[in-house]
Amino acid sequence: MSTSRVRLDPARTRAGVARLLRPKSIALIGASPTPGSLGAGVLGNLTRFGYAGDLYLINPNRSEIDGRPCLKSAMDLPEGVDCAIIAVPQAAVLDAVRACAARGVGGAVIFGAGFAEQGEAGKALQDELARIAADAGMAVEGPNCLGYVNYVDGVATTFGAMAPFPVNGRRAVGIVSQSGAMATVLRAALQAHDVPVSLYASTGNEALNGLEDFLEFIVEDPATHVVTLVAEQFRDPQRFLALSRRCAELGKPMALLHPGRSAAAREAAQTHTGAMSGDWDVMRALTEREGVCVVETLDELIDVSEFFIRYPQPVTGGVAIISDSGAFKGMAFDFCQTLGLDLPEPAPHTRDVLGAIAPNLIQPTNPLDLTAQALVDPQLYRKTLEPFLHDDGVGSVLFGGILSSPLVAPRKMQPIIDAARELKLTKPVIFGMLGDDAEIPQDIITTLRSLNVAFFRSPERALRALAAFTRHHNRRKLPASAPVAPAPRLPSGVIAEHEAKKLLAAAGVPVPRSALAVTREEAQALAAQIGFPVVLKAQAAALAHKSDAGGVVLDLADADAVARGWDEMHASVARARPGLALDGVLVEQMSKRGVELIFGARNDPQWGAVLVVGLGGVLAEALHDVRVLAPDLDAASVADELRRLKGAALLGAFRGQPARDVEAAAQIAVRLGAFVMAHPEIAEIDVNPVIVYAQGEGAVALDALIVAR
To answer: Is 223 within 8 Å of 171 (Cβ atoms)?
Structure first.
């Protein structure tokens, strides 16, 4: 993949992609009657889908294929064909693209591999391909892709055998994936669950048109209601964020799987598509801020996409679980706790109704264990579903039922089917069977799905997807952030602590009283003004890690101690960093003890500004206990994230210590976020530690370092 791609004018790009994906005419370059060939596969799909537009077959060695006439060359095409499918070997691709450009073709699907994913020589060919297409205003899907299928207009440009799956006006998922295999897997899985797909496209190497170009088409497509993506890299993160906002404005949920959390995954992405993966945590923080549901596994992506189709209304509240296994009840408690999925206690009225259904047999709890009584009286499934549907604390209902044989399944499932038909299901109702591949009649599964009851052969898989789905809906919805006016540019390079703290204090971040001294006597006088005890800190832009060089002396109780500390500190720094000239020494009020947090911020070159909050001190590095956040979150959202840290217990009342002023700490993070947004030249800010005192006593930033570009 070329790192400096040729780009089209936005209006021409939209027009070219629209012609490519909704073509009134198609040229198949490399048409063939040979079974198993790319050309034969595409022709078979277009025939099965009943493509109604003009179709031109190109094969220099044949006059006809299956009764359809063949042209000898793409140069023989009429002017202005919308889409060319280039199914020829790599060596012939450039000539085919040149011919398409000369004949005014709107866009090309290029299957061939051996381009940028294979190194510099392939990249050069790909760059030339992109230049030819761009000069002609022609859109390109690929190379190294599997094409697309438009189920709304009946266009299948891929070569793997496909069957039509008409949308027929139903809510549908649009899929864009840089991986052709993942696009195919998603499409197949969703359709197997009776979820229509409007269009799926694999973008491959993205020689000219990237994921964002195809995403824009799908976002604006009236036949698409949910957008599902597999992205190994975003070529244009800012455009993707804008499209995410547009998707949210239109009320279309977007689900995203983005490999790249590990170094190995990032390397695999590079060798697979020529991509250079970005920072996953930054991506997640900023895309979730725009309303994207980011998932971590392929199963979750499939399942969350299905949930968005079946359950378009926002889900608020936790899950009620109905099962016929006491053991699964205990397992559900554990699993939901791990997932952070709330299991609300039944409301008083719900408890009363449940308690009266089978007194002394069924305890009115959540999860609800129907015991073996459910096999005796399968109507218990329906009787217990209704009160949960009317419980305001319950956002969804999961049946974790034992289906042990084809004979048992109909008896247990029929009451649920009847309830789905007769009740107004205002909340997601999901069936997660216990029994995995135990045989059950397929018509039961088909009927449930036709009634918008999602069916899983694993309750754990259902709960995992439900947790991501519920988290998405429960995430605090913030208004779009207002543009931040840029502040005067900071000087480039490292800004030492004493200057960094002045800047942060002016931005509203609380810091201890301090002043810079350049002589021992000045330090003594300043310490007396500030009030003992004090801290001495050596100051120089080149001394980022003062403690490592002996550049910090703590808890100096009087003027004599300040003098001794001054001498000791200068001697230590001189030994550790010979020849280093100090700006001076910061004389600072000694702060009392509290819980240490670390706050940071940076302007990612691609994604923009982000915040990092976490436990301070050695715990930050040892446990990686941090949260990466969007920089414009409000204080309540930041406080929520602080309480999700692994060590969040330290912020509450803990081992005789009082609860901490999390809200005050959150305010510091909010001001830090505003500061970094106002200074796009900032490469990094490190505020460590932030000391958080008891509730109501505030928080203070003890150290700060700013690096500006």
So the answer is: no
